[in-house]
Amino acid sequence: MTADDSVGRLEDDDFPAYTMGRAAEMLSITPGFLRAIGEARLITPLRSEGGHRRYSRYQLRIAARARELVDQGTPIEAACRIIVLEDQLEEALRINAEYRRAAGE
After folding, report:
1. GO BP, one example (predicted)?
2. Residue 87 — very low, low, confident or very high, per pLDDT cuts 50/70/90?
3. At residue 27, what are phi and psi to the nearest 5 degrees?
């Protein structure tokens, strides 16, 4: 692996670069919160060879959104469902925009 490969992986939003402890520290949340949203299947961290959870930047953004909703009083299960629905809506809007562009060409 070259230095360029390492830099490229760190820039990849889906590369599992962060341990549970580091992820929790970065987001000012507890490891238990990360486990809870994992159990709710909002995010599924990859596992290192030693079995430790590893999180990507994309997953950290999702965890931060969940934390925001929970801090506003939303139960964690409902927060996870809201985030899934928001993601589905965003994808549907993206596809719709593609269809409109294609129809206009």
Report:
1. regulation of DNA-templated transcription
2. very high
3. -95, 0
